[in-house]
């Protein structure tokens, strides 16, 4: 094909004709929206744990209040690209009433300019949080549509696989079972925060010791602290967990706004113990703060919250140049198509969404059809060889469209 032919083919790509934003309840991308008895809502330490009435359940303070956002983009040839993230009805409003103006009539090949327009037009009320979830959802739907129009997997468009397979660690309450299932490590939720005092600290260490005894010395064990600690508690936990249990990393110990605290924790933590964070950070500017202030060893952007693939390219490149690992939070297929293309993303996270969790189930079930799951802790790159992100929206779920843009 001639150069001008390739240019012409890109120029003549179908345009985005329709933008639709739906919300849906019951797990999926809003993976905290689960029924009773799920490990993910069993007395997990949070910043709200200082209030006894919000200590037992994260749903009690509203962790599942938003629900899932589904963004669907239909091109003028009828091809549909879509993505799911969290954000629910407020994000639907932003997509339909604000962001759709930058999409209708445009080519999905213009993702860079579209991202810039979405971000800077919302900057006066956006920058992080639900607005960036909405922008991420649109951006991922654009990449999915572009891949479907070009009949190309997203990871091909990002430069191709740098290894033959993804390897995973498992997040959930049963690292001992995760080891049997072939994962390289297990990340536990921390159950007790500073408000539960020394007794809570002992319980945190006892659970980790128990898992170390069950999993043996070579299996990675990590603690996810979900923003619940202060610097003093995090430093003490890091030292005890390293000395007594060989903890691999301490994750998101402090508020995402406390860059100074993270920098101090990184300095105070035992050499060899990794400090990780970034799940609730967004954009190149937020991650630049984490890296320039030397806050952590691994950044963990959620692909559906940090700004989408277009922004993650910038975040990951900066991390690579600084020698920082970039291992996305959860994010299912949106993460897999990125991680497989990067040397500074040597493994990936798998959220164990079975209530036990005693078996591997698709992370964003029941919303995606064709969502790959790890077998023996691995997914082969060839399993991603489907156009776009390689999944379809499950039309059997109760999608609601609260707003429209016409
Ligand atoms: Mg986490």
TrEMBL record:
Pfam family, one: MR_MLE_N
UniProt cofactor note: Binds 1 Mg(2+) ion per subunit.
Keywords: Lyase, Magnesium, Metal-binding
Cofactor(s) it depends on: Mg(2+)
Name listed for the protein in its UniProt record: L-rhamnonate dehydratase
Organism the protein comes from: Croceicoccus mobilis
Catalytic activity: L-rhamnonate = 2-dehydro-3-deoxy-L-rhamnonate + H2O
One GO process term, biological-process aspect: carbohydrate catabolic process
Annotated NCBIfam families: PRK15440.1 (NF011968)
Domain Mandelate racemase/muconate lactonizing enzyme C-terminal: 165-272
Domain of life according to the entry: Bacteria
Gene name of the record: rhmD
């Amino acid at each position: 094909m001639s150069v001008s032919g390739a240019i012409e083919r890109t120029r003549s790509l179908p345009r985005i004709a329709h933008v639709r934003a739906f919300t849906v309840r019951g797990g999926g991308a809003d993976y905290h929206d689960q029924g009773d008895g799920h490990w993910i809502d069993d007395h997990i330490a949070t910043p709200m744990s200082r209030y006894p009435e919000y200590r037992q359940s994260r749903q009690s303070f509203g962790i599942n209040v938003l629900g899932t956002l589904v963004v669907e983009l239909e091109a003028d040839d009828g091809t549909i690209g879509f993505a799911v993230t969290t954000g629910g009805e407020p994000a639907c409003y932003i997509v339909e009433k604000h962001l759709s103006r930058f999409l209708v009539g445009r080519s999905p090949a213009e993702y860079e300019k579209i991202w810039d327009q979405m971000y800077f037009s919302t900057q006066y009320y956006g920058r992080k949080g639900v607005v960036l979830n909405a922008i991420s959802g649109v951006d991922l739907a654009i990449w999915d549509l572009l891949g479907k129009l070009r009949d190309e997997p997203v990871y091909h468009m990002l430069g191709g696989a740098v290894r033959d397979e993804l390897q995973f660690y498992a997040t959930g309450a049963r690292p001992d079972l995760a080891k049997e299932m072939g994962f390289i490590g297990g990340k536990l939720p921390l159950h007790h925060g500073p408000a539960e005092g020394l007794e809570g600290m002992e319980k945190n260490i006892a659970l980790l010791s128990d898992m170390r005894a069950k999993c043996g010395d070579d299996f990675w064990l990590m603690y996810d602290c979900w923003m619940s600690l202060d610097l003093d508690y995090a430093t003490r936990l890091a030292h005890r967990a390293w000395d007594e249990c060989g903890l691999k990393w301490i994750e998101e110990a402090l508020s995402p706004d406390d860059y100074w605290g993270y920098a101090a924790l990184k300095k105070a933590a035992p050499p060899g113990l990794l400090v990780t964070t970034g799940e609730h950070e967004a954009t190149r500017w937020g991650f630049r703060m984490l890296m320039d202030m030397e806050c952590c060893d691994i950044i963990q952007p959620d692909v559906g919250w940090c700004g989408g693939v277009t922004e993650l390219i910038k975040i990951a490149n900066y991390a690579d140049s600084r020698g920082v690992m970039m291992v996305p939070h959860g994010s299912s297929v949106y993460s897999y198509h990125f991680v497989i293309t990067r040397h500074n993303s040597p493994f990936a996270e798998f959220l164990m969404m079975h209530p036990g969790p005693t078996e591997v189930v698709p992370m964003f079930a029941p919303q995606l059809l064709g969502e790959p799951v790890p077998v023996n802790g691995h997914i082969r790159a060839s399993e991603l060889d489907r156009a776009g992100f390689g999944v379809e929206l499950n039309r059997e779920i109760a999608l609601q469209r609260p707003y429209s843009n016409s």
